Fold each of these.
Amino acid sequence: MNLTKRLSGLVMAAIAAITFCSCEKEGTESGSASGIVGTWKYSEDELLFNGKSTSHTVIYKEDLDWTITFTKDGVMIDNGYTGKYIYSPESNTLTDIYYEGGKEYRDEEYLKVLSPSEFVMSYGLCEHDLSEYDKNNYVGTYKGINIYRDDGDYYYHKDGKWICCDPMIGDYDDSYEGQREYYDEQLMHFKRID
């Protein structure tokens, strides 16, 4: 009888532990109960090329009042828009869940940094297929990498992949030619305010 009680207690403890440490669910964080929960304010954008800083930082004045709040129950209030989110610390991803026309959509963003005082969200790093014709549309070199153009969009080749890039903000012209600076990833910095 004593053995049965002990085994029952162990089974109940195991079930409780499994339930408590459940896999990620829509509307909740998996893992840490803290992390992303709180209110964050936009501070700046940083532009990268080929994984390295371009030493260009952009502050969008229209975004200086932008705040995002993440609650413990999975609600995200993004500059007045209310939706749901899933934060996965294992993959450092933040999934925004929203609905349009009765259909559910999910946008997943990678968090490069998540600390008690700051989070940094990555935009960019897209891959693309280029036609043989467009692979011949060389427009210049940036940081030792050849840049190509396809219908006004820009790319470079790395590790067998074509990576999307853009001219630096304010560095567009109609000729699509010339030596200019490019970026392929935009990092949005947010500071904790609550």
Amino acid sequence: MEAPIPQVLQLSRHCAKTHAFLDKEMDLFIQSGVSIKFVKDQEPSKVLGVGFSVTWKQNPSYEIVGANVRDWHNAAAELAAEWPHHDEKHLIWRDLQYQHIYDLSQRVLTQSRKPHLVYLAMLVLSPEIRGQDSLSDKFLGQIPQEDTHSIMVQSNFRGFDKTVFKSFPKTKLVDQVKYSEEELIVNSDCRAFKIIDHLDGIRFFAQL
């Protein structure tokens, strides 16, 4: 199954603007130095999965907004609804989604008073191994738990929460929104997130 939010935004569409946006997004994670590629032991050229992460420094010049994820996402939905170019509405929302994540990371750093934060964004797995908890454990386990940085993890499935708590016992919930509370409309009069309401919602956990 495709990851929930990309499924909602239809990021796999054949669209030059979407491809360019995703290329920029992937460059952020690939050049971060903390993303991880998993390969098959006996076949190193075969990629089984990629854990996308990024690290941010505490930014004293950044003015924290402090809005919760539900309000931020639905403000983004309003801006997307008013955007004049229909083929860019999903990208407007996606860009603002990442702005919330950065804002939340700065809030966490303010609380922890640590110089850096590692954000574990997503784990993309080959269809043949999806549903295996071992690789999720390995992904989260690759992040060293040191006093030099905070850790923030995004969970898009309720089932992933247990993996987060297993890897980071001291973690706490810092923000959340149910998919049923998401108001984005992209290609019809229906809420875009309605198709994944049953998956509960997005949760952000942080280990300060």
Amino acid sequence: MLNKWLKKKGLKAACMAAGLATAWGGGEAEAASNKPFGAVAETYRVSGTITPSRELRSVYVATYFRNGSSERSILHPIGVVVPGQQTTVFQFDVHLWEGFLDEPGISQGYTVYGLYDDASNGVTVGLDQTNGQTAVNNSLTWPQYFGTLSYIPTENQVAGWLRNGDSELTWLLGLGINGYEHFSVGDEFGQALKLVDFSGAVDNGSAFAEIAITPEPMTFLLVGPGLAVFLRPRRPQSK
């Protein structure tokens, strides 16, 4: 039990370390730890869609990556307002150590957070299809789904984090992805999420995200000059 508690506290501390509170238009909140000595960064592109049934505000996509030696999480702002009954497309880059996603025991995933009722702190969370449907079928409130332990944030706390772009949101995702608690948050990349409005869980549409490594910069360097040479007008030859 003590070891489990330490894991939770260690995860929270890691997610808070180097976390940057972000304002709209101010970029992302990131947290990283334990960069391997001599590691080279690789760039991955996260791309996806959010299709809520009802309008969302203060919308973020949170991503989380963890292997045996290090972890990384990013909170990416999507928009102050994401319209309902429409599909909003998003795309952003994530920098990971070379070979990070190839290591055994990797845990990774994403979720979407937003406010469906700004006035009353109503929070929308992206859940995997199974748990999302269970929450909706049983009209679960926030405490019923997430529990009431002191270190688990309330819906009001999460609403405040969303307004401030607080990187604590990635900690909540990490707990759900790693199975440290009885609840689940988000799902692996390539799996669709069900957007659930708490409290009294109501279905609010869907979201999807996938991740792929971006081409090496050298590829563009090679292709660029090649095209330039190919398109350059032929010079008159001297006789």
Amino acid sequence: MKVLEMLNYVRAEQKWINDFINAFNETELIYDRFCSEVYNELDIDLLVEKYENAGAYLDLDWNAGATKVVLCLKNFAFKSPYTYMVNYYTEEDYNELSDSEKKECDRDEEGWFSKIPFFMGSTGNYCDVEAKVYQKALSYGVADFFAETVRIPGTHVYVQERYLMAFDEYNGRDDAPLSKTEINDIRKTCCFYNSIPDRVISWWANHYSYSDLLKLGTFLKLYDINDLHAGNIAFFPDGKLKIIDYSGYCSSTSNLV
């Protein structure tokens, strides 16, 4: 079942999820460039607290990166891009701003700051890039390596099937692990980015054909999907190891899809 079909089925049974999605959709997400974290963390905590005892589908958690905020339920991961970012200024930097720039600033306990529309690298909406990449992966024949991401109609919230465990949390033994030489050969011939962990390549090599890996490597290069560390790759209930964050980071991906 496609992730949006599965979500619609659950929404029909668990009406509170509609309220949860709408609340997330209406939450203004702000990225603090000064601290590299979510500026309005309290707002998200309050949203989580409101729904933490809502129903059987709940296993609520949230995390945030440099490009998006993710709210995780038992079966789904809801993603939303930042709306704004805040830039903080030292007193010296603030004094060097023009009068018109100073009018755009506000002040809190941390100092002077301005709030501007979020933009990082070549885009402001990495969730939309991710959804477009997945459609490209379907057409290219490599969608098996990616967790499906799709926008929920009428919102700027995107949904993805929730993973069981990120690869950076995996401490299990690998079946038939490849040698370092074999992994390096695959990395070189398939043009895999250095960010992809050796153990991920080994796992994929034991579950997919060489031609599948070669096609994946070509696809990743074609769309400059570069940020593939262990935290962005995860195990899913179907037993597959998939990429969960594939919008690229400060790459040209948004211009290529």
